[in-house]
């Protein structure tokens, strides 16, 4: 009898925490990630880096600074003999759309041929190569330098309208964007960026209760009993508030400037086997004509 009573007292209470599969359900992870990215934006590879690097907060992002293990020799070996990949998605992308002549006329004011090849070189206009140069304030060369940028043109499609992507460091983005809007005389459009709703802790608790009450179905429902829309990832970057405008257009020339930061991912491959990795990873899609 004493042994039986002792066993009853020693029996552990059943844990109320959910299992790992339930805690890592995708729809809950996205809501949690959005909540934790309110101040510093995460890159797509944040989880991988957070497990292996010391993270730092710079330029509105949470970036991997130094590895937790001694991997310098491994990185050097990868760069010299294999392939090393770097995530440069924190670089900001500015997209310009408009007529080619109008774009080149105004872009010539913020750069100079004395520093190297510019936007109007034939090899860059074809869209086959990526270019790099230094930008200055309009008509102020060689003074008032803004900083270095890289750019690439979208290949021609037979139309006079062209598309240009300019990649800038997040620390230089606001100054360069302000100068581009000034030379093209772009104003904010009527459409504003609508931020995706971020669930609060109270809402998340209610959603978890609804999920638990449904048993094996594991479906979320709102107050009306209909299926709730999954929480989407926040679109934005560390240099711009999600509620601010992200596109501007010139009323006279029709040139449009769009902020594509964190919408276009950017990776850098270094090493002799970089081309082999790309050919094995990416498969060419079949061309379908309508």
From TrEMBL:
Residues 4-98 form the Pop1 N-terminal domain. Pfam families: POP1_N. InterPro entries: Pop1, Pop1_N. One of its GO terms (biological process) is tRNA 5'-leader removal. GO terms for cellular component: nucleolar ribonuclease P complex; ribonuclease MRP complex. PANTHER family: RIBONUCLEASES P/MRP PROTEIN SUBUNIT POP1, RIBONUCLEASES P_MRP PROTEIN SUBUNIT POP1. This is POP1 protein. The gene is Pop1.
